[in-house]
From TrEMBL:
Organism: Nocardioides hankookensis
Region spans: Disordered: 243-264
Domain of life: Bacteria
Record InterPro entries: DUF3027
Protein name: DUF3027 domain-containing protein
Pfam families cross-referenced by the UniProt entry: DUF3027 (PF11228)
Length: 264
């Protein structure tokens, strides 16, 4: 069997001697822009394209350790004059930079809400579906608001309920969390929650995997736990005889009187 391979060669621009040598020009333009006190040593250059080179200088400005000044110079074809294109401050390999921006909604974690805080849920949140049916035609935001208002006036109960995707996300989150089988306290437990008398059953599709702990002495009291979770407060836990507390000694009745004390 014959295989034909196509080799693609990417041509890299050749260094232009005039732009590579324009270190003093790049430094002068940088000093004029930011001041001599903020400019450090020349760190090298990067060939950006044909007759285009970027010179890098250390940034000596306080608070910018590891950052570099980037000065891009270029030369037009058939001319010897080198000009400065742009001057920017860029982070180096050891620079301290801000973490990637994360939208506020994605930064919220359980326990972050304080009294009075509001966390709206989008109308098209895939975790929720309408509790009632309003047809197959898509609705805009105003029409959905009207449907919710009518449902509330008619006393239809919850406007939306968990979708299968929402139930799956919740089940996976609970199972992987502190109430699941992989929690340290569950791995060392003598038995599982499914045989514990303090387990309160719940209704709905999630009832096949989860319940609520009702043991006031347990860490998970009032929390969702998986059936294969467990802890040392299991209802059927019994101490071995060697671990049982020692019985108190037989009480001794003191029969001595003041006259007996004086006779000694």
């Amino acid at each position: 069997m014959r295989h034909d391979f196509v080799v693609i060669t990417i041509a890299r621009p050749k260094p232009d001697s005039a732009t590579v040598a324009a270190v003093d020009l790049a430094r002068a333009a940088l000093v004029e822009e930011v001041g001599a006190a903020d400019v450090g040593d020349h760190l090298g250059h990067v060939v950006e394209g044909e007759r285009v080179v970027t010179h890098l200088f250390a940034c000596a400005r306080a608070g910018y350790v590891g950052w570099q000044w980037s000065v891009t110079v270029a030369r037009a074809s058939r001319t010897k004059d080198v000009t400065v294109d742009e001057i920017v401050l860029v982070p180096g390999d050891r620079a301290i930079v801000a973490p990637s921006w994360v939208p506020y909604r994605e930064r919220i974690k359980p326990g972050d809400l304080s009294p009075g805080d509001l966390l709206p849920v989008d109308d098209d949140d895939p975790r929720l579906v309408p509790t009632y049916s309003f047809g197959d035609d898509p609705l805009d935001a105003d029409e959905k608001a009207q449907v919710r208002a009518v449902a509330q006036d008619l006393g239809l109960g919850r406007v939306r309920t968990l979708a299968p995707e929402g139930r799956e996300l919740a089940a996976q989150r609970w199972y992987d969390g502190d109430g699941g089988p992989d929690a340290p306290i569950a791995r060392s437990a003598p038995d599982q929650c499914t045989t514990c008398g303090f387990l309160v059953r719940i209704a709905g599709p999630l009832s096949e995997m989860f319940g609520v702990c009702a043991n006031g002495d347990a860490n998970d009291d009032g929390r969702i736990v998986s059936f294969d979770h467990g802890c040392g407060a299991h209802s059927e836990v019994r101490l071995a005889k060697k671990h049982e507390p020692l019985p108190p000694p037989v009480p001794v009745i003191d029969t001595m009187t003041p006259d007996d004390v004086e006779s000694f």
